[in-house]
# Entry
Amino acid sequence: MRIILAILLIANLLMADHDDDKKALQMPYDMRYLGLTTTQKQTIYRLLLTYKERRKTLRKKREILERHTFWLFKQKTFDKESFLKQHLQLRRELLEIEADFLKNLHSILSEKQQKKFAPHLEEWEID
# Structure
């Protein structure tokens, strides 16, 4: 009976952690307040699809990096250089994705829409 309870507890903890990842990666796509034209909506939709794909790829890389960090930690000596190099590369890719997205979005929006969107930039930051 204790074994079953332990398994259920571990499964519950694993699922709780999994939900937190999904929540952290959700992004607000409601842009109705900008008064977008049909063309802008279609262009932004395509941009968001590309953005989501790039983020998906980055999440896979993050999972690989987490396994590598775990492996590094189990070694006799911790390779600080390898750890820093790989984590900095991942963060650079993350910033590249965010910068590309914002640059493209900026070019799609009119000046008036850019001013309306600016206060909401924080909501669009990647965790």
Residues 65 and 87 are 8 Å apart (CA to CA). The helical segments are 2-25, 38-74, 80-108, 111-117.
